[in-house]
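Handout, tutorial session.
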Amino acid sequence: MNVKLNTSMGEIVIELNEEKAPRTAANFIQYVEAGHYDGTIFHRIIDGFMIQGGGMTEDMKEKPVGPPIENEADNGLSNDAYAVAMARTQDPHSATAQFFINVKKNDFLNHTAKTPQGWGYTVFGKVVKGHGVVNKLKGVPTGRKGMHDDVPTTPVIINKAEVVAPDAA
């Protein structure tokens, strides 16, 4: 299954890996189908690392989320360039709606052990269309907004997220 993100900078299509990250992919689809991502922003962008979004509105208010999901980072998928993974707190099993797109290979985010330091970040998909959009996004000017660093100075908005058939992407 694929998800298309229609952003203020262009379209990004993510191919979900429902086989290796079934709970995470299902969680993501649930947020997409509920319209959760519509109107959210990419609120944290670090060139040479990742672009993160899916949880905040343009005024940096967090949207309400459901319960956290179990970490599936031990699924063999890697945080390679253009891989999509779930954001979380220091608690390995705290991911809800926020996700990030790796803009380079980030091996240090991969699962190494079932310990607080080794759990890693669950990869559940990859960008299959819109690499140029991701490359534009990673280079936008950022600054501090409230308590948050690395916030784009001009908001990058996810106008709409929708599930699309793989051949329609």
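The second record follows below. Compare its token runs with those of the first.
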Amino acid sequence: MTDVLLFAMAMIWGINFVVVKYATHIFNPVAFTGLRVGTVAVFLVIFALSRGAPAKSGAAQTRVASRVRVNRSDVWRLLLLGVLGNGLYQLFFVHGVARTRAGNAALIVGAAQAFIALVARARGMERVKRMTLVGIGLSVLGVALVIVGSARPARGEVTLLGSVLVFFGVLSWTLYTILLQPYTKRIDVISLSAITMVGGAVPLLIASLPSIIATDWSAIGLGGWLALLYSSIISMGVAYMFWYRGLRVLGPTRTAVYSNLQPIIALLVAWAFLGEDPTIFQGVGAATIIAGVFLTRA
């Protein structure tokens, strides 16, 4: 079941690159980021507070109760982690996607598994293998190729800054994933999602408030609202729950393997709906990144 949910997560996130690219043509990127994270934070908090306690008894009830208990120090740490993973990362991600091709962003994010594996091994969470190091090296090379290719405008598009911003987002997400993993062992997915999302939403809403106030709401249209709904509730609400479950059941590296599918999905959807013809640098970068992530799991 966990593998099925992670596959669905990869599909949702792969499509989301194109949705965000579309939305940033309608919304100011700063306003969209604040609205996106704020919307899903409200959704998750309401969902967490309204769900009923599971009807269990005996030892099973004790295990569930011990895993969902969140003390005050946990809340503060998770809020701070939320600033990193749902605040800083989302700023880098949305601003980056707005300034580069959706395919470039997807390829760079697709290499996140290699960085997660590297940090996990550096912290002693998982063993280091020679093929893993080779895979990490290939993935880093693939990201470099995509970023270098971004310096060569395609069809008049200047995409270097956007690709670099997405890369910084990947570094933020890597650190967030590693630091969050221990909490997934003893805190339920819904509580974890709600607290960390609030941690990201508060500073983002404060920072984006002027842009939100200046938004011309009459110009948004149905497409803009649907993009906001998909990119918040579906991509950051539903899919994040699948991600957290994977961290708890499979660990950070095996969960990150499913990010391999995101670039392929995003490239196909961007080609079909945005007219982004694949470039040579994207092709070589994609092959290098995918080879790297598979070697990372060899």
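Points raised in discussion: Confidence is low (pLDDT under 50) at residues 53-67.
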